[in-house]
């Protein structure tokens, strides 16, 4: 306990002036208790308001005296300052490290900024590519639809062509095609037809013939084949069957000079003639023994005991002959 010099009140704790050695409670000293605690070693240099206000004697007066307390305080402050200065090189080195790190951070920041610009550029390029891919996908989808439409049209065209071919062949169902008869000026085709009937033992009356004429062929424009249309397909089939039984018929058998072979067949369309030739070639390669035409239909059979197949298209040829 002590008595405050200013208010003469007893107090447990307070501040002591290093100059006049007087003690003051904290309100009279003008400082809080917490502020006094934070002074630490600087408590040894604290002075009251009166001592701070007193004039300091000039060094020239020769009256300046240094108290032992002030000397100790100065020494302590010098020691504290010295210890702090000892840490200054390390502090400076730390500052330099921080500066280097800040420079590195600045470089990293610049690199990050450049990367950001690059990413933005890549993003724009990716968006452009995505747009192009979308356009391509749309175009591909459109092409798929177009392809489907083309396939549909191709199927329709193929069906129409088959239908046209069937109709064309059906219009020839009663026609007989005669190949190999020599041409002569002012020839009588009805008389030639009668001679052929006598040669194969199957006569066709003139009244049973719708028309008879010579027509050019694809490979021979000079020697034209004879096309004879009769009343019905039964008469035509019987006539051709009789000709096949006669085996070999020559121009000499009809009163012409020479030994030219005469062929009598169904009047096939050009498409079916080409299909017949392909069928004969592939059938021979695959060991088929029988290829013939009956009622304008191409028929094949592997052997006498195997089933027969009708070849209407090249797909049938691949399916049944291979």
From TrEMBL:
Residues 95-170 form a coiled coil. This is FP protein C-terminal domain-containing protein. InterPro entries: FP_C (IPR057251), Transposase_22 (IPR004244). It comes from Helicoverpa armigera (Cotton bollworm). It holds the Pfam family Baculo_FP_2nd. Residues 269-320 form the FP protein C-terminal domain. Keywords: Coiled coil.
């Amino acid at each position: 306990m002590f008595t405050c010099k200013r208010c003469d009140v007893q107090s447990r704790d307070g501040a002591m002036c290093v100059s006049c050695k007087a003690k003051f409670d904290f309100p009279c000293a003008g400082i809080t208790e917490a502020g006094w605690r934070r002074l630490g070693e600087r408590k040894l240099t604290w002075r009251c308001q009166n001592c701070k206000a007193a004039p300091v004697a000039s060094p020239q007066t020769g009256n300046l005296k240094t108290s032992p307390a002030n000397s100790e305080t100065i020494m302590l402050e010098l020691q504290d300052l010295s210890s702090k200065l000892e840490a200054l090189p390390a502090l400076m080195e730390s500052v330099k490290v921080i500066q280097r790190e800040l420079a590195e951070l600045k470089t990293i920041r610049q690199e990050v900024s450049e990367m950001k610009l690059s990413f933005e550029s890549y993003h724009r390029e990716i968006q452009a590519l995505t747009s192009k891919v979308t356009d391509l996908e749309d175009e591909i989808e459109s092409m798929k639809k177009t392809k489907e439409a083309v396939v549909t049209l191709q199927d329709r065209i193929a069906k129409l062509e088959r239908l046209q071919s069937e109709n064309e062949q059906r219009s020839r169902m009663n026609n007989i095609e005669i190949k190999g008869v020599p041409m002569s000026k002012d020839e009588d085709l009805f008389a030639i037809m009668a001679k052929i009937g006598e040669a194969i033992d199957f006569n066709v009356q003139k009244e049973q013939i719708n028309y008879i004429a010579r027509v050019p062929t694809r490979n021979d424009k000079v020697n034209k084949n004879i096309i004879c249309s009769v009343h019905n397909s039964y008469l035509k089939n019987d006539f051709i069957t009789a000709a096949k039984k006669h085996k070999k018929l020559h121009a000499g058998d009809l009163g012409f000079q020479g030994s030219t072979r005469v062929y009598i067949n169904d009047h096939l369309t050009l498409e079916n003639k080409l299909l017949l030739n392909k069928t004969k070639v592939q059938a021979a390669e695959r060991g088929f023994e029988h290829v013939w035409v009956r009622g304008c239909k191409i028929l094949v059979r592997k052997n006498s005991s195997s089933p027969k197949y009708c070849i209407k298209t090249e797909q049938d040829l691949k399916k049944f002959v291979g």
